[in-house]
Protein backbone atom coordinates (compact mmCIF):
# COMPACT_ATOMS: atom_id res chain seq x y z
CA UNK A 1 0.00 0.00 0.00
CA UNK A 2 1.48 3.41 -1.01
CA UNK A 3 0.60 5.00 2.34
CA UNK A 4 1.34 4.14 5.96
CA UNK A 5 -1.77 2.43 7.34
CA UNK A 6 -1.27 3.81 10.85
CA UNK A 7 -0.99 7.33 9.46
CA UNK A 8 -4.09 6.74 7.35
CA UNK A 9 -6.11 5.66 10.38
CA UNK A 10 -4.86 8.63 12.40
CA UNK A 11 -5.73 10.99 9.54
CA UNK A 12 -9.23 9.54 9.16
CA UNK A 13 -10.02 9.84 12.88
CA UNK A 14 -8.60 13.38 13.08
CA UNK A 15 -10.51 14.45 9.97
CA UNK A 16 -13.85 13.14 11.27
CA UNK A 17 -13.31 14.88 14.62
CA UNK A 18 -12.51 18.12 12.79
CA UNK A 19 -15.57 17.72 10.55
CA UNK A 20 -18.06 17.26 13.37
CA UNK A 21 -16.81 20.43 15.07
CA UNK A 22 -19.09 23.26 13.85
CA UNK A 23 -17.23 25.67 11.60
CA UNK A 24 -17.84 28.02 8.65
CA UNK A 25 -18.42 25.19 6.15
CA UNK A 26 -20.95 23.41 8.34
CA UNK A 27 -22.80 26.65 9.10
CA UNK A 28 -22.86 27.55 5.42
CA UNK A 29 -24.28 24.15 4.45
CA UNK A 30 -26.77 24.34 7.30
CA UNK A 31 -28.00 27.68 5.94
CA UNK A 32 -28.28 26.36 2.38
CA UNK A 33 -30.21 23.30 3.55
CA UNK A 34 -32.61 25.33 5.65
CA UNK A 35 -33.33 27.71 2.80
CA UNK A 36 -33.24 25.38 -0.19
CA UNK A 37 -34.06 21.90 1.07
CA UNK A 38 -32.09 18.61 1.20
CA UNK A 39 -30.97 18.86 -2.44
CA UNK A 40 -29.52 22.34 -1.90
CA UNK A 41 -27.79 21.10 1.26
CA UNK A 42 -26.18 18.21 -0.62
CA UNK A 43 -25.15 20.38 -3.57
CA UNK A 44 -23.65 22.98 -1.23
CA UNK A 45 -21.68 20.10 0.33
CA UNK A 46 -20.59 19.02 -3.15
CA UNK A 47 -19.39 22.55 -3.86
CA UNK A 48 -17.35 22.65 -0.66
CA UNK A 49 -15.96 19.17 -1.40
CA UNK A 50 -14.96 20.24 -4.93
CA UNK A 51 -13.03 23.20 -3.54
CA UNK A 52 -11.31 20.86 -1.09
CA UNK A 53 -10.08 18.78 -4.02
CA UNK A 54 -8.54 22.00 -5.37
CA UNK A 55 -6.98 22.74 -1.98
CA UNK A 56 -5.45 19.26 -1.81
CA UNK A 57 -3.98 19.72 -5.30
CA UNK A 58 -2.60 23.10 -4.25
CA UNK A 59 -1.10 21.55 -1.13
CA UNK A 60 0.51 18.78 -3.15
CA UNK A 61 1.96 21.30 -5.58
CA UNK A 62 3.26 23.47 -2.76
CA UNK A 63 1.65 26.59 -4.23
CA UNK A 64 0.59 27.85 -0.80
CA UNK A 65 4.17 29.09 -0.51
CA UNK A 66 2.77 32.11 -2.37
CA UNK A 67 0.96 33.18 0.78
CA UNK A 68 4.19 32.95 2.76
CA UNK A 69 6.16 34.89 0.13
CA UNK A 70 3.45 37.50 -0.51
CA UNK A 71 1.39 38.04 2.68
CA UNK A 72 -0.72 40.64 0.87
CA UNK A 73 -2.09 37.91 -1.41
CA UNK A 74 -3.49 36.09 1.63
CA UNK A 75 -5.16 39.25 2.92
CA UNK A 76 -6.68 40.11 -0.46
CA UNK A 77 -8.18 36.66 -1.02
CA UNK A 78 -9.49 36.57 2.55
CA UNK A 79 -11.22 39.95 2.19
CA UNK A 80 -12.71 39.00 -1.19
CA UNK A 81 -14.12 35.80 0.26
CA UNK A 82 -15.52 37.63 3.29
CA UNK A 83 -17.12 40.31 1.11
CA UNK A 84 -18.76 37.64 -1.06
CA UNK A 85 -20.32 35.93 1.97
CA UNK A 86 -21.56 39.23 3.39
CA UNK A 87 -23.06 40.09 -0.01
CA UNK A 88 -24.94 36.76 -0.09
CA UNK A 89 -26.23 37.34 3.43
CA UNK A 90 -27.47 40.86 2.69
CA UNK A 91 -29.25 39.65 -0.44
CA UNK A 92 -31.07 36.95 1.54
CA UNK A 93 -32.15 39.38 4.24
CA UNK A 94 -33.36 41.92 1.69
CA UNK A 95 -35.29 39.12 -0.03
CA UNK A 96 -35.89 40.86 -3.35
CA UNK A 97 -39.34 40.44 -4.86
CA UNK A 98 -40.33 39.54 -8.40
CA UNK A 99 -38.42 37.06 -10.52
CA UNK A 100 -36.21 35.88 -7.67
CA UNK A 101 -39.22 35.08 -5.48
CA UNK A 102 -40.80 33.07 -8.29
CA UNK A 103 -37.57 31.17 -8.78
CA UNK A 104 -37.34 30.48 -5.05
CA UNK A 105 -40.92 29.20 -4.96
CA UNK A 106 -40.23 26.78 -7.82
CA UNK A 107 -36.96 25.46 -6.41
CA UNK A 108 -37.75 25.41 -2.69
CA UNK A 109 -35.78 28.54 -1.84
CA UNK A 110 -32.35 28.11 -3.44
CA UNK A 111 -31.59 26.68 -6.90
CA UNK A 112 -29.28 23.67 -6.76
CA UNK A 113 -26.79 25.21 -9.16
CA UNK A 114 -26.50 28.33 -7.00
CA UNK A 115 -26.07 26.23 -3.85
CA UNK A 116 -23.21 24.31 -5.50
CA UNK A 117 -21.46 27.42 -6.87
CA UNK A 118 -21.81 29.29 -3.59
CA UNK A 119 -20.37 26.31 -1.71
CA UNK A 120 -17.49 26.12 -4.18
CA UNK A 121 -16.70 29.84 -4.13
CA UNK A 122 -17.04 30.46 -0.40
CA UNK A 123 -14.66 27.63 0.44
CA UNK A 124 -12.33 28.34 -2.47
CA UNK A 125 -12.06 32.00 -1.47
CA UNK A 126 -11.04 31.05 2.06
CA UNK A 127 -7.22 31.05 2.04
CA UNK A 128 -7.21 29.62 5.55
CA UNK A 129 -8.42 26.35 4.03
CA UNK A 130 -5.37 26.29 1.76
CA UNK A 131 -2.95 27.02 4.58
CA UNK A 132 -4.74 24.51 6.86
CA UNK A 133 -4.45 21.82 4.18
CA UNK A 134 -0.78 22.68 3.65
CA UNK A 135 -0.12 22.33 7.39
CA UNK A 136 -2.40 19.33 8.00
CA UNK A 137 -1.96 16.85 5.16
CA UNK A 138 1.86 16.65 5.10
CA UNK A 139 1.80 15.43 8.71
CA UNK A 140 0.36 12.16 7.40
CA UNK A 141 2.64 11.79 4.38
CA UNK A 142 5.66 9.50 4.54
CA UNK A 143 8.12 10.52 1.76
CA UNK A 144 10.11 7.32 2.35
CA UNK A 145 7.24 5.33 0.81
CA UNK A 146 7.44 7.35 -2.41
CA UNK A 147 4.42 8.17 -4.59
CA UNK A 148 3.84 11.41 -2.65
CA UNK A 149 1.18 12.57 -5.12
CA UNK A 150 -0.69 9.29 -4.66
CA UNK A 151 -0.52 9.67 -0.88
CA UNK A 152 -1.99 13.16 -1.20
CA UNK A 153 -4.72 11.77 -3.48
CA UNK A 154 -5.67 9.06 -0.95
CA UNK A 155 -5.80 11.54 1.93
CA UNK A 156 -7.77 13.95 -0.24
CA UNK A 157 -10.30 11.22 -1.04
CA UNK A 158 -10.73 10.50 2.68
CA UNK A 159 -11.23 14.22 3.29
CA UNK A 160 -13.92 14.50 0.60
CA UNK A 161 -15.76 11.36 1.75
CA UNK A 162 -15.78 12.63 5.35
CA UNK A 163 -17.11 15.95 4.06
CA UNK A 164 -20.04 14.25 2.34
CA UNK A 165 -20.85 12.02 5.30
CA UNK A 166 -20.78 14.70 7.99
CA UNK A 167 -21.76 17.95 6.28
CA UNK A 168 -24.00 16.19 3.76
CA UNK A 169 -26.01 14.75 6.64
CA UNK A 170 -26.25 18.20 8.20
CA UNK A 171 -27.46 19.65 4.88
CA UNK A 172 -30.12 16.97 4.38
CA UNK A 173 -31.47 17.21 7.94
CA UNK A 174 -31.51 21.01 7.77
CA UNK A 175 -33.28 20.76 4.43
CA UNK A 176 -36.03 18.56 5.82
CA UNK A 177 -36.60 20.83 8.79
CA UNK A 178 -36.44 23.90 6.56
CA UNK A 179 -38.88 22.33 4.08
CA UNK A 180 -41.44 21.89 6.84
CA UNK A 181 -40.94 25.47 8.00
CA UNK A 182 -40.98 26.97 4.50
CA UNK A 183 -44.58 25.84 4.06
CA UNK A 184 -45.40 28.45 6.66
CA UNK A 185 -44.88 31.89 5.10
CA UNK A 186 -43.91 33.65 8.32
CA UNK A 187 -41.35 30.95 9.10
CA UNK A 188 -39.90 31.20 5.59
CA UNK A 189 -39.11 34.87 6.11
CA UNK A 190 -37.37 34.03 9.38
CA UNK A 191 -35.34 31.33 7.61
CA UNK A 192 -34.14 33.85 5.01
CA UNK A 193 -33.19 36.32 7.74
CA UNK A 194 -31.44 33.67 9.86
CA UNK A 195 -29.56 32.26 6.86
CA UNK A 196 -28.48 35.74 5.78
CA UNK A 197 -27.30 36.41 9.32
CA UNK A 198 -25.24 33.20 9.31
CA UNK A 199 -23.54 34.15 6.03
CA UNK A 200 -22.83 37.70 7.22
CA UNK A 201 -21.44 36.34 10.50
CA UNK A 202 -19.10 33.95 8.68
CA UNK A 203 -17.98 36.78 6.37
CA UNK A 204 -17.25 39.14 9.26
CA UNK A 205 -15.36 36.37 11.06
CA UNK A 206 -13.19 35.74 7.99
CA UNK A 207 -12.56 39.47 7.55
CA UNK A 208 -11.43 40.15 11.12
CA UNK A 209 -9.38 37.01 11.71
CA UNK A 210 -5.66 37.50 11.30
TrEMBL record:
Compartments it resides in: Cell membrane
Bilayer topology annotation: Multi-pass membrane protein
Keyword Transmembrane among UniProt keywords: yes
Domain of life: Bacteria
Entry keywords, A to Z: Cell membrane, Membrane, Transmembrane, Transmembrane helix
InterPro entries: LeuE-type
Major localization class: membrane
Pfam families referenced in this protein's UniProt entry, alphabetically: LysE (PF01810)
Spans traversing the lipid bilayer: 6-30, 73-94, 115-137, 149-170
The name this protein goes by in its record: LysE family translocator
Source species: Actinomadura yumaensis
